[in-house]
Amino acid sequence: MSIVDIHELSYSIDNITILENISLQVQKGDYLAVVGPNGGGKSTLVNTILGLNRGYKGSIKLFGDPLKEFKRWEKIGFVPQRVIEIDSKFPITVHETVKLGRISSLRQFWRSHKEENVFIDEVMEMLKIPHLKDRLIGELSGGQKQRVMIARALVSKPELLILDEPNTGVDQETQREFYSFLKRLNREKGITIVFITHDIGVIEDSINSIVTVNRELIKSNNPTTIFNCKVMRDVYGIDSHLQNHRH
Ligand SMILES: Nc1ncnc2c1ncn2[C@@H]1O[C@H](COP(=O)(O)OP(=O)(O)OP(=O)(O)O)[C@@H](O)[C@H]1O
Ligand SMILES: [Mg+2]
């Protein structure tokens, strides 16, 4: 069974086709990178998968269930592209926000309550937010807020983690630790990851597949050759800036 199974999905806004005839399967344990130009439809695709867009054509199944019947949302963690605006007086602290992610968690994931708390601390350390834990969420900077939202998605212990350019505004050192943490979650816990990014070089050694979304979806089965792939050159114009990150 595929965790995400999309068949001939099309989606239009005001008679403009944003997504056309997209078919895609994500299997348990996959680490899929989604790339493509600005406006290509990446965010629209994940928002549609998450049931946020109505009126699409085609079929979407999550964990084997048709999207319209899917209810087990605790299985999915999502970090949206844009930092949500929160009133600076909203009476909820960083620590409370992160722990909220835990409410819908899957109990069997953890051997003990202690292990669970250790994980929350580890996630907060990794994202460098422990010193912010008693601050109100609405008072934080954009990058700090984004780090809290990432922590929140991670502690919900999802089976599928969807990240839409989660690093917007997050500093590079935190990003690096975050990437290696995600890789560990994927390899050691078997968490399936769908990662939308413009910076494929930094997760290149973690992913096992890559797709390009530019209204249509273009698959490449071999991530290491994607940089030389004609498709990428066609989509981005040139491929040289994509190679700068390669180590
Ligand atoms: N609510 C909306 N109303 C009208 N057009 C929209 C709406 N949401 C998205 N679009 C259009 O859909 C297209 C795809 O947008 P989308 O945000 O999915 O792209 P993206 O690949 O995520 O881009 P980026 O890399 O900049 O995040 C764009 O042309 C955008 O203008
Ligand atoms: Mg987007």
3D architecture notes:
- With 247 residues, the protein is of the alpha/beta class.
- It has a single domain (4-243), classed as P-loop containing nucleotide triphosphate hydrolases (Rossmann fold), CATH 3.40.50.
- It is built from seven helices and ten strands.
- Helix 2 (94-103) packs parallel to helix 4 (142-155) and helix 3 (113-126) packs antiparallel against helix 4 (142-155).
- The longest helix is centred in the C-terminal third of the chain and has 18 residues, at 172-189.
- It is globular and about 45 Å long.
- Residues 104-108, 227-231 and 238-247 have low confidence and may be disordered.
- It binds adenosine-5'-triphosphate and magnesium ion.
- Residues 13, 18, 36, 38-44, 81 line the site of adenosine-5'-triphosphate.
Task: Report the uncertain regions.
Answer: 104-108, 227-231, 238-247
Give the termini separation.
Answer: 35 Å
Determine the CATH topology. Rossmann fold
CATH class: Alpha Beta
Question: How many alpha or pi helices?
Answer: 7
Q: Count the strands?
A: 10
User: Average pLDDT across residues?
Assistant: 83
